[in-house]
Amino acid sequence: MRRGSITPFCAVSLMLITSLLFVLLEGARVYGLDCYADMKAEAGMDSVCGEYQPFLWQQYGLLFLDGAYGTEFFSINYITESLENHLAANCDTSGWLQEGLGLDLFQLRMDELLVEGYSLATDEDGEVFLKYVAERAKENLPLGIAEDLYENYQAAENLEKQHGGVEESIWEAKTVLAEVEAEWELKQEENTGAEGESSEEEIEKPDISALTNVLDNARRMQNSSMLNMIFADLSAISKKEDSLSVDLQHRKREEGTLHFDGDSGWYQKLLVLHYMEDFFSNYFNTKEGHFLNYEMEYVACGKDSDWKNLEGVLKKIMIIREASNVAYLLQDEEKMALAGELAGMVGLMAGENPSVVKVIQIGIIGAWAYMESVLDIRALVAGERIPLMKKEREWTTELTNLWSVFDKETKAKMCEEGLSYVDYLKQLLFTTDNQKLAYRMMEVMEIGMRQVKAYENCRMDQMLVALQYKVRFRSQPVFALLVSVGEKYEGNYYFSKNVKRSYIP
After folding, report:
1. Cβ-proximal residues to 413 (8 Å cutoff; 6+ apart), any chain
2. Structural contact between residues 235 and 372, judged by C-beta atoms closer than 8 angstroms
3. Which residues pair with 320 in a beta bridge?
């Protein structure tokens, strides 16, 4: 056997070179462990968020994580425990040397898991929910189209402000007419002689039967039930009732700890309405799997039955149509002259008092607009369209035959252009307070969800939309233990990762 030798210089050089190689290998391994820790933390959060509530996704296209995991009580610890299990499953702890796989140089163990924050659907007075819904619908409603819709909604709101109070005007006209008639009768009695002979000052009473009929028909219609007045057949209206008495707006709710910056302007609201039209049921579009048939109507009115919500919506649409029809009549000189002619008869009885004539004329306009509005609503529920502001060719009623409105088969003229029932419903929702809008939308979801046996304990204020955790991993050195120069590092490497997941795009 031949013997070899090496000089001390060569030995030291070889030791330094191998140490350098081991340091480089350990440095590359640490970098790989850091990337690996990122992957494991991200994969763990993805696994947890993949446990979303299925009903809300299937019926409403929204992803939420149930913070109560189907129980009655919310606890972030449920999420933490689930994340811990997923991370542990992703971190192989079977040993460095695995049979058939060789040496595993990238073993990590989870060392610590801390909750840094979470956000719930009901946080910030529902603004988190509205932001989520708006982002969900943004790709389907470009800004340019939304601007046109916004102008229409503003026009409807302005009409209602400028020409509201139709019912009050009719009532005031009726009251003034009764007072004028009473004063006229009293005056005629005073002008009649003691022996029953009329004095020369007595005048013949004008025929105001046409005027009386106009006001009486309008008041009679106003005193009728809205649904009875509109529908010839009430059997087609849904009779579903909400027996859960869900009230998110006023009950004690869970609260998250993360803050979202949202845009609560008009564009966001239009996006929310666009989403509702796609995913919520309404009178013209009931959806399979949804408990309430008129969900959009519920959001508008918040009553405990489909029947009441539909009635409430029609009453509100009636106000919009009344204001619009009054605005039309005020600019139609011929119709204003006709109303003025009827009012002038009362003026004769009141000594040509201009204030009396004005009140009566406004009452006539209000009654006429109201009766036209009844026909408009009938057309809308029949699936036809009514423009926000009518033109002369689109006007239906005549002042001389308003009694025909009592025929439930009578409706407004067919209009080629205009707004549908759902368009008017969205106009109502546009003026709804943001908090009320958000919570009622979530109430609809909660009502439907709790009708399913498996989800009867679920609550919308327990649904998470965002999570943030701090995860710390540890690993032991490998190549560093082989370095023969200097002091050996025998501790652990630690990798801290902040990982956040949000269902909001």
Report:
1. 379, 393, 394, 395, 396
2. no
3. none
Distances (CA, A) of 8 to 18, 327, 343: 15, 107, 125
Task: Give the pairing of strands 65-66 and 463-475.
Answer: antiparallel
Half-sphere exposure in the Cβ direction for 149 (13 Å, CA): 20
Per-residue burial over 78-111, b if 16 or more Cβ lie within 10 Å, else e, is bbbebbbebbeebbeeeeeeeeeeeeeeebbebe
Nearest CA to 253 out of 467, 80, 439, 437 is that of 439
Read off the pTM: 0.86
Dig out the tokens for 244 from the structure. Answer: 């859960």
Amino acid letter, residue 369: A
Task: Dump pLDDT digits (tens) for 420-472.
Answer: 999 999 999 999 999 999 999 999 999 999 999 999 999 999 999 999 999 99
Which residue, among 405, 153, 422, has the nearest Cα to 269 in the 3D structure?
A: 153
Question: What's the full length of the chain, in residues?
Answer: 505
Residue type (1 letter), 148: D
Other C-beta atoms closer than 10 Å to the C-beta of 59 total 20
